[in-house]
Design goal:
Layout (H helix, E strand, L loop, with lengths): L1 E6 L2 H18 L2 E3 L13 H13 L4 E6 L7 H11 L9 E6 L15 H5 L12 H7 L5 H7 L7 E4 H5 L2 H14 L17
Parallel strand pairs: 1-2, 1-3, 3-4, 4-5
Helix pairs in contact: 2-3
Amino acid sequence: MHKVFISYHHENDQYYKDKLIVMNMFNQIFIDVSVNTGDISDQLDDHSIREKIRDEYLRDSTVTIVLVGTETKRRKHVDWEIYSSMYDGKVNKKSGVIVINLPSIDCSYYTACHVGEKERLYPENTEWISISNRSEYEKRYPFMPDRIVDNLLKPDAKISVVNWSKIENDFSALKFLIDATFDDRANCNYDLSRPMRRANS
């Protein structure tokens, strides 16, 4: 089983994080190493929080799942978690990244980048298009964190975007994504040029 860090907006989207954990209890396909509400004191300064997230939670993870709801892209801690997941340090190695669009954003688009993913998750789709410009990604994914969009534009970053409805009743689809993301993580070439978010907006 792979160690998975789940990045999400705690206030809005805790319900879906909890649903993933309950689903995992019955299927046991990953080990949750994400931050739970109350794990890190709000009294700490931003630098200390960022260090704790990186060194105590992300350090042993190999896959990061980003739950995208209506306010996710505006949260500084989510941006820090995504950045830290993508950063390939001496101690904390980079992870693979999966995005799950939550029902609250009502998205019908998805992105498949791993070998076998199109056939496994979307056998009904016979036509695929490639997107190479930011404006089209932002139109399709208006709630997507900017750092994820940066990397959707890089084919060798290998980030899949799946809708909650695809994994809600087919947990084996999420297992496939976690395994494929784990396998491809070492070859991901992420764009980390964007400065880390300094505040929520």
